[in-house]
Amino acid sequence: MISVNEAIQLVEKQSKPLLKSIFKSVEKAGGYKLFEDVFSDINMPPFRQSAMDGYALCLHEGLTYNLIGEVKAGDAHQPVLKNGEAVRIFTGAPVPDTANAVMMQEKVAVDGSFITVQHQIAVDTNIRPLGEQVKKGALALSKNTKLTPAAIGYLSSLGISKVNVFKKPTIALITTGNELVDAGSDLTFGKIYESNSKMLLSALYSLKFYDVTIHKVEDDYSETLSKLKTVIDETDLVIITGGISVGDYDFVGKALNELGVTEHFYKVKQKPGKPLFFGTKNNTSIFALPGNPAAALTCFYVYVYVALQKMMDNEVVGLPRVQAKSISNFKKNGDRPQFLKAIYSDDQVEILEGQSSAMQQTFAISNALVFVAEAIETIEKGDSVEVILLPV
């Protein structure tokens, strides 16, 4: 049995970046990282553009201008202005080549076909120059840039419809157990509704990992062996819940060993989630999580999350950790480090009741985990504690 820190370090060391690419349509590329530099095919803006509603002026020494026309956003015509002439113009509209400044409408008085500006303005005032954001052929976004909504909008504004991005891992979720039935089925005596796959699928989706398949196996060795062989051969990451302990009907460990999976660790000195397995075979990472839901989700956030970030070649691989003031008292049973379900807000954290590894209700309202190190026996109100912030 190894320590929490040793387990995290092994996951970091053994999880390898995929370094594969895939072309995605821009609107579906959010959350991905660019696999290569992206260069602009156009100037942006592609013409001299008005920065506001107002009047485009061909500057002269006076304050009064002859109004000769109008240019709206999307117009293609280019009025020719002489000194002392102006056109009405709107935000985003092309500024005529013969205009050299735009005066905002709030500083203009209109009298029929003449306007009077409040003061002289400098050349190029309120004009966005050609290629102000990026010039044709210039670098638009660098390799490894994470595509946020703003980045998607920016690429779309350049007319880019597809991008080459780092491929995200294919993931298989496997639940084990004869006692599990799907929601909507009759809950006969001895059965429970299966929740781990939905829970972990939601966690993966929230992190923008969508290439996920779900599999269910009975407590049968041959079926377990066959399913594990298939998914290990076909996916980048396998997450199993249940069947990893040492009971008579826990077949996962035996099957992984027969399949030649390299074990990096089995059992971590922690609570919840002691019977946690991590191994690899070829380029596939395999986690076998405890079957109890709260333990499975805790192990996902502490360990599987790290593997996912490493596979995406991200520099920051763990969830954020902060120090916060406890507003609760807590006494630890035993010497194992613990991850406690908690609510964090404004640099304070409340340790919740119901810390059992099977308790989902408490986890449902948590937004953090308090990590209680091995050396800590009690937490008193006002103590500073280490808090892991969960994704929202």
From TrEMBL:
Keyword Metal-binding: yes
Pathway: Cofactor biosynthesis; molybdopterin biosynthesis
Domain of life: Bacteria
Cofactor(s) required for function per UniProt: Mg(2+)
EC number: 2.10.1.1
Keywords in alphabetical order: Magnesium, Metal-binding, Molybdenum, Molybdenum cofactor biosynthesis, Transferase
Gene3D superfamilies found in the cross-reference section: MoaB/Mog-like domain, MoeA, C-terminal, domain IV, Molybdopterin biosynthesis moea protein, domain 2, Molybdopterin biosynthesis moea protein, domain 3
Domain MoaB/Mog: from-to ranges: 172-310
Catalysed reaction, written as an equation: adenylyl-molybdopterin + molybdate = Mo-molybdopterin + AMP + H(+)
SMART domains, per database record: MoCF_biosynth
Protein family (similarity comment): Belongs to the MoeA family.
Task of the protein: Catalyzes the insertion of molybdate into adenylated molybdopterin with the concomitant release of AMP.
Name of the molecule in the record: Molybdopterin molybdenumtransferase
Species annotation: Mariniflexile gromovii
